[in-house]
TrEMBL record:
Pfam families: Formyl_trans_N (PF00551), N_formyltrans_C (PF18216)
Protein name: Methionyl-tRNA formyltransferase
Signal peptide range: none
Species, as recorded: Pseudomonas cichorii
Superkingdom to which the source organism belongs: Bacteria
Positions of the Formyl transferase N-terminal domain: 116-212
PANTHER family: METHIONYL-TRNA FORMYLTRANSFERASE (PTHR11138), METHIONYL-TRNA FORMYLTRANSFERASE, MITOCHONDRIAL (PTHR11138:SF5)
An annotated Gene Ontology molecular function: methionyl-tRNA formyltransferase activity
Occurrences of domain N-formyltransferase dimerization C-terminal (ranges): 238-289
One annotated Gene Ontology cellular component of this protein: cytosol
C-alpha cells in the first residue's frame, strides 16, 4: 500500500500538533516548473509526500482514502486526516480516523506550513486564512462549477439562475472558491430534481475527478488555467434570504417551483413562511416523475 496514516500528538498548553511519521519522509520535490500567468503546468516528482486533508464530508473522505489505497506503491504518502472545529457532528469523520483541527489558529497554521507538502480542502467548513494558502500548496475540491455561483450551496443557486453547476478542483488563494482551475466536471439539472438530487450528482462528479486527478496532484503533474471570469459569489446570507418566503411575491409558477426545488434538501428545514398569526411553517417540495 502506497500510503499510511500519520500519528500526531496534541500537547496541552502549547496548542501545537507534533508530527510523528510512521515512515522516513523527505518531502523533497525535484524538477519543479515555475507557474506562468495564464495556462500553467505544474510538474515534479516526490519520493514521499506529507499530506494533510481537512474535510467535513465523510463520503468524499472515504473516497479519497480509497484512491490513496490504489496509488502506485512507488509513491509514498503519509495521510493526516482532519475535520474542522466547526463540525458539530464529527462522528463519521472520527470513524474514518480523523481528528479535530482549527485552521484559524495561528500556531496550527505555523505547524501546517512547516510540516506538510500538500493540503487538500474537501468540503471544509472553515475558510483557510491567507497565510496558510500562501505558505503551502493548498488545493480545494469544490461542489460547484467555478467561477459560477462560488460560495454557499452552488447547486441551489444554479437551480434558480440557470448558471452551470458541477465539480471543480482548484488551487486555493486568499479569495473564496477562487484560484486557478485544475479540473472540472459539469452536472446537468433535471426539471424534477431538488437541491439534494443535484448535490448528490455533484458529489459523484467530485469522486470521478478525485480518482482521475489525485495521483497527478500528489506527483505535481497537472495543468492549471484561469477561470473565465470572476464569476459571482453567494454567501450564507443570500441563501437565508431565499429561505424566507414572501407569500405575496409575484412571479411565474416556474419561478416559484424552482425556488422550492432550490431550498428543498431532503429533510432539512430550510424554506419557511409566516401566516397571519405569525406562526412559522417550513415547506419543501417532493417531485415524482410520472
Amino acid at each position: 500500500m502506497g500510503f499510511t496514516f500519520s500519528r500526531a500528538l496534541r500537547l496541552s498548553g502549547r496548542r501545537c500538533y507534533i508530527f510523528d511519521a510512521l515512515c522516513n519522509l523527505t518531502g523533497i520535490w525535484i524538477n519543479s516548473v515555475k507557474l506562468t500567468e495564464d495556462n500553467q503546468q505544474v510538474s515534479g516528482q516526490a519520493s514521499a509526500i506529507k499530506l494533510l486533508v481537512v474535510s467535513d464530508n465523510p463520503p468524499l473522505s472515504a473516497a479519497l482514502i480509497e484512491c490513496l489505497e490504489t496509488l502506485d506503491k512507488r509513491l509514498t504518502v503519509t495521510l493526516d486526516l482532519r475535520y474542522t472545529s466547526y463540525n458539530k457532528a464529527p462522528q463519521n469523520m472520527v470513524e474514518l480516523g480523523a481528528r479535530e483541527i482549527n485552521v484559524k489558529d495561528d500556531t496550527v497554521v505555523d505547524f501546517i506550513i512547516s510540516h506538510y507538502d500538500l493540503v487538500l480542502s474537501v468540503h471544509c467548513k472553515q475558510l483557510f486564512p491567507k497565510r496558510l494558502v500562501e505558505g503551502v500548496r493548498c488545493i480545494n475540491f469544490h461542489p460547484g462549477f467555478n467561477p459560477f455561483n462560488r460560495g454557499w450551496y452552488p447547486q441551489a443557486f444554479s437551480i434558480l439562475n440557470g448558471l452551470p453547476v458541477g465539480a471543480t478542483i482548484h488551487v486555493m488563494d486568499k479569495e473564496i472558491d477562487h484560484g486557478h482551475i485544475i479540473a472540472q466536471k459539469p452536472v446537468t439539472i433535471g426539471a424534477g430534481e431538488t437541491s439534494l438530487e443535484v448535490y448528490n450528482n455533484v458529489i459523484e462528479a467530485e469522486k470521478e475527478l478525485m480518482r482521475e486527478y489525485l495521483p497527478r496532484i500528489l506527483q505535481g503533474r497537472y495543468e492549471v488555467f484561469k477561470p473565465l471570469s470572476e464569476g459571482n459569489y453567494n454567501g450564507i446570507k443570500d441563501y437565508n434570504e431565499l429561505c424566507e418566503l414572501n407569500l405575496d411575491e409575484v412571479g411565474s409558477l416556474r419561478d416559484h417551483i424552482n425556488l422550492l426545488r432550490a431550498t428543498s434538501h431532503g429533510n432539512f428545514k430550510n424554506a419557511y413562511f409566516h401566516d397571519e398569526l405569525g406562526e412559522k411553517y417550513f415547506i419543501r417540495v417532493v417531485l415524482d416523475k410520472a
